[in-house]
């Protein structure tokens, strides 16, 4: 009771008073040396006007943001992140509801199944998807064998194929936080909603969804951040036809040798991901359950 | 600290005002067109993976009656409640409300109000939104919702808390909201799942009065699940004592307490002294029993016993007395311990045959020492009080 009162009023300042900041020093210094400093350098490099880095100026920025092709790359990258979030959400919620209702034994099996993909490397999983999605791959052979289609479908090097592969690859990131919060939810709340005359769907949208939103936001943040930056999956499955920011950066650094331009693209990717995360945490403010 | 104090004061004020209101307005106009509907359970049987949780339970709850399902944990009382609510589909048997079977209806179409042990208020909604939840689900207009919410808040004395979130309320206040939320739907049946278990002891009586008042005011047929016999005795019209999925005895609180049908009911309701003995002779409405400790008692019983049969005699502690004079129906005892518990003084005495017997005697104010009650000797003779109704059970029946 007293604890709740303190938390509710936020007075007396007990939390935050006795923080020993020295505990954060090792990680803080590491970040300073290997993240903040390189970031400053990156920002500096982006203000060189030419690839040889002889002249300062805004040319790299204006070139990047003045070109419809690069703007489309930004938009495609954002879109890919959104699609991955939507697809993982649509698949994860039903599974989370099943998980909730399952016995502890079944839950252990489910958790193991969900975690298993994380035990294999992203590269291997990505190449496995090539085998599945290719013109002579598992899906096309099955469809042709069943007579559903005469000519093989183009799945590789398409956005659809990439979203399918990313959905599978990123699924654990969405599921783990969602399952955790789903399992903590009081069954009585669902029963209460049902007894008060709400249908199963109404109960889901009015009770289950709002109360599990914090878990979804954590999952969606992880999925969005890793889908937009998934260089390997994007290049291997998307191929040369689909260009996203990570591949663009790689190309500018190793092929074109235009580092100022690559720096602009890198910063753009960083802010793109950041914008997505901020949008999600802004959503999270509506999910306050207290 | 000051805020905590203010909160305490506020809580006390709220609790008090409700208690006063309960006394002042027992006949507050009941909502119109309310007729209490009877609930019938007919041969309900349910098992979980091999174990029989509910075993052929038949129970008729009359319109406007409050029946308590009383029993230890695992006796099937909660399963039975969840079957009535529709959260569990029973293996066998029928549930009918007002003569119509409801077994095929999902929980959201049964029109049953439930108050959960932990109240289960929606934490992301305000008090008013919680109360309006069921009305909105039913598709009532906003005006009807607002009007009903206001009415219910007034009924449970929570009008000032309409915009609070459940976490900002005390346990008693949360329970009032949970009641208001259930009653706003004008349910046909009210189910109460361990309604007082999560409340402070001194709040319980207030809430017991409150629930009884609302149940009467709304003319509701109600079932309460509890493991606490005092709660059941306090507010139930009838008590169904359950054990191992079956109803051991169904009766008014007085019947269950004074005439327990089985040794289980006897031991579960209240405390009692169990004394071994043997039937000596039968007479018109009972038996003469020779106790192992030497005393001979006449016990009224409707059950059938043969002379010579070993029996167990059960006597409530408050139906016994301690005397200074010996008599054929008194047991010589030595005093071990006395405890002043509330208005009673509980003496723990031991007979010559090493039986431990509890004797409860109304405590006179200021006296707490057993020696004073016994005249300082430490030995006494333990017998039946004038109004005593000892119960007789077969010794082979555990």
From TrEMBL, chain A:
It holds the Pfam family BPD_transp_1. The chain crosses the membrane at residues 28-49, 69-97, 109-132, 160-182, 203-225, 261-283. GO terms for cellular component: plasma membrane. One of its GO terms (biological process) is transmembrane transport. It is found in: Cell membrane. It comes from the Bacteria. It is a multi-pass membrane protein. Keywords: Cell membrane, Membrane, Transmembrane, Transmembrane helix, Transport. InterPro entries: MetI-like, MetI-like_sf. Residues 74-280 form the ABC transmembrane type-1 domain. The keyword Acyltransferase does not apply. The keyword Chloroplast does not apply. Belongs to the binding-protein-dependent transport system permease family. CysTW subfamily. This is ABC transporter permease.
